[in-house]
Amino acid sequence: MTPTITAFERSPDGGRGLARDMRVRWALEEVGQPYDVRLLSFGAMKEQAHRARNPFGQIPTWEEGDLVLFESGAIVLHIAKRHAGLLPAEAKARARAVAWSFAAISTVEPPIVERETAIYLERDRPWHAERLPMLEGRIHVRLSELSARLGAAHWLDGAFSAGDLLMVAVLIRLKDGGMLEAHPGLAAYVARGEARPAYRRAFEAQRAVFADRSNNLKSR
Ligand SMILES: N[C@@H](CCC(=O)N[C@@H](CS)C(=O)NCC(=O)O)C(=O)O
Q1: The CA-based dihedral angle spanning residues 42, 116, 191, 88, taken in that order and rounded to the nearest 10 degrees
Q2: Alpha-carbon distance 74 to 127, whole Å?
C-alpha cells in the first residue's frame, strides 16, 4: 500500500529542505518506497480532520491503511524498521542507531529550535540581544560534543543509518546561520548526507511543491 504523508502547501522556508516532511521523504527515498503527498495550508493543518492525524496540528504525518502516525522521528523509524537500509540487522548496532535517532531529535534539535524561535518570534523582546548568544553557546556545546564523537568517521556508528539521516536533517537547520562552519567535521558530515542521491531526490520533490505553488500564484 502506498503511504501518504502530509507537507506544507507553501513552506515558510521557501522549499529549502527545512520542513520536517523532508526527513520522511529522505527516508522513503533511501529505501525506495513510493509515496503520496497531501499538501496542507496552515488553516487546514489546524482543522479537526488534520488534528485527528496529529493532535498538535503539524506536519508531517503518515497514513498507511488504518495506521496513522505523527512525529517525524517516529515516522522515520517506522520506515526504517519495515525496509532494509536504514537500520543495521545486528541487534546491538540496531539499538545504537535508534539511540542516535533519539539523540538527534531530543538532544541536538531542541536548542537549535529554541534559537530559531528566538530569532523569528522574540526579536522585539528587550532580553533578545542577551539571550541569543546564550542559546548559540548551548548549541556550540552540543556540536563540539557531537563532533568529538564523530571524529574522522563518515557516519555516527558504522554504516549510514536512520540515526545519521535524522542527525543530518537536524544539523541542516544551522547551515544558513554560520554556526556549522565552526565545526568543520560536522559541516563535512552534513555535506556527505546532502550528497546522497536519496537526499537529492527528496530535496527536489519538496522544492518542486514550493516552485509549483509560487508559479500558480504568479499566473493567477
Ligand atoms: N516534533 C515534531 C515537530 C513538527 C513540526 O514542528 N512541524 C512544523 C513544520 S516543520 C509545523 O507543522 N509547523 C506549523 C505549526 O506548528 O503550526 C516532528 O518532528 O514531527
Answers
A1: -70
A2: 35
Q: Ligand 1, atom 6: nearest CA belongs to which residue?
A: 58
In this structure, is residue 219 part of a structural domain? no
Ligand 1 contacts CB of residue 58 (under 6 A): yes
- Locate the ligand 1 atom nearest the alpha carbon of residue 46 and give its number: 17
pTM, rounded to two decimals: 0.96
Tens of each residue's pLDDT in the chain, 220 residues: 999 999 999 999 988 999 999 999 999 999 999 999 999 999 999 999 999 999 999 999 999 999 999 999 999 999 999 999 999 999 999 999 999 999 999 999 999 999 999 999 999 999 999 999 999 999 999 999 999 999 999 999 999 999 999 999 999 999 888 899 999 999 999 999 999 999 999 999 999 998 887 666 565 4
**Domain CATH for 186:** 1.20.1050.10
Q: Say how far apart CA 217 and CA 198 lie, in whole Å.
A: 29
> Are 121 and 34 contained in the same domain?
no
Taking alpha carbons only, the member of 20, 24, 23 closest to residue 3 is 24
Q: Provide the number of structural domains found in the chain.
A: 2
Closest residue CA from atom 13 of ligand 1: 58
